[in-house]
Fold this sequence. Notes:
Chain A is mainly alpha-helical. Chain A is built from 14 helices and no strands.
Amino acid sequence: MSSYMGRKINPQRFDRSQIRSYLILIPVSIIMVLPIIYVVVTAFKPLNELFAYPPKFFVRNPSLQNFRDLWRVSQSMGIPFSRYLINSIVSTALVVILSIALSLTTGYALSKKDFRGRNVIATINTVSLMFVPTAVGIPRYLIISGVGLTNTFWVHIFPMLAMPVGLFLVKQFIDTVPNSLIESARIDGAGDFWIVHKIIAPIVKPALATVGLLAFQSSWNAIEASTIYITNDALKTLPFYLSVLTSQQNLVAGAGLSAAATLIQLLPNMIIFIILQSRVMNTMAHSGIK
Amino acid sequence: MKSLKMKKKFRPGGKRTDNRSLFGLLGPYLILFTTFIAVPVLLAILLSFTYFNSVEPPTFNGIQNYVYMVTQDESFLKYIIPNTLLFAFVVGPGGYVLQFLLAWELAHIQRIPRTIFALVFYSPSMTGGVAMAVIWRVIFSGDQYGYINNLLMRAGMISQPIQWLTDPRFLMTIMILVSLWSAMGVGFLAMLSGILNVDPQLYEAAYVDGVSSRWQEIVYITVPAMKPQMLFGAVMSIVSAFSAGQIGVDLAGVNPTPQNAGQTMITHIADHGFIQYNMGYASALSVVLLIFMFLSSQFADYIFGTDD
């Protein structure tokens, strides 16, 4: 018998052998978290600390001035900050809800229904995991203008809904739902939408949470629609306003504003991930491409 | 009767004739997928064989765009291709290995600290490039207020502030560092989950069979047992390696970047398509980019693919 025994995966209690993991993880995580901490402290710096030389990393007298300025600057631009915020919230909520619904019904059809072309569609979807929108920006632009979405609020929503990664994850998860459950419902006379709603959805909740998270991130952070497809400022979203702020000439004075805006942008992402993380990890167990 | 039954695999969802509800289930996604993903890819291929300035209708010009790419476009072979490949090779495989190693170490600690570390590693990938580019521009700012300049000047390593983001010597390195920083995305979570779900009995059997180091453990047990997650992670890494090049323009604030130092396929496409309105040529560039991505994915599939 070999003398080598590997360290335990997913240990229940602390053991000396874990110290080496911490020796790697702690320095890496400090480097990775520094820029985020920078955002937080800068957002609360008053103007005199932003201009202090030499620059200090941490904030001495935290103030909410930058957040107040966010409202003020936006008013001088003619569109109140709250308008961008509401546009962002409404479009993101719609994208999240609709993409969850779409990946659920489509995933069910691809996993549990028998029809010609089923495998072809599933394969095309998997291949298209790599056809990210950014790679085909030009034709996408032509299509979106062609279908008349330019300068409408819907341009924030429709192009974001078909999410190959989301469908892929949900389908993989539905594959694990036993067929017998669906059979017995069908014998009782249940239709497809009833089955999706009452049987599939509760079981694949973790996958739906993951789709929701991914949809949230892509929509909440999206800027293309506002910069490329919309000319009416009243229809634009928060990331656009953020990018306008940053194009201001004075980087140092703008830094506090930008950091405050970035924090507003970043915080919802983090909160949602914290809430959903155990479900997301559960889904990722089924994420493999075979 | 019996043979019929065996021939047709029973699917509980219903018979083939159930077309109406099938359309209801599949239709919306297929329409959106076709409109916003499939048609753009096909259109990119078609337009790549045309001259198209977005004002007049496109005119067919054969493979002229591709010929122009390799013979006339001065920056393409000199900067774009080397930059794209350098960036993709470091950020793709580099980020991928980093993801795996961090996930591996995370799998060996307890649940609560693991969750906290996972949040820290995942957070950078949550922010859009635009949001964080602002922050990097302040940190790498070219005057003495920039944190990096200030640190180096106080340490006495430099006497004059360095123009980090507009100096061609540094831009690519900073792009790579920033991209690696935000590389721990969905693929990272998939791999972490994959490692955690490897059957512990496999390891025990392997110890009996004489596996004698951590590397053997990873190579002979962990990776083979989680090939599907490895492939998913690889595809995600490939996608971001080829599409994250946008960060160069975000950091430098201009397209093209100074002396093309941070110019990659993605920003070259935007330059020709949205700035010069040379859409036929930009489409040809998109097709080349898609071919790069496709070949890389095929390679990943060759390594990690399973026969199922």
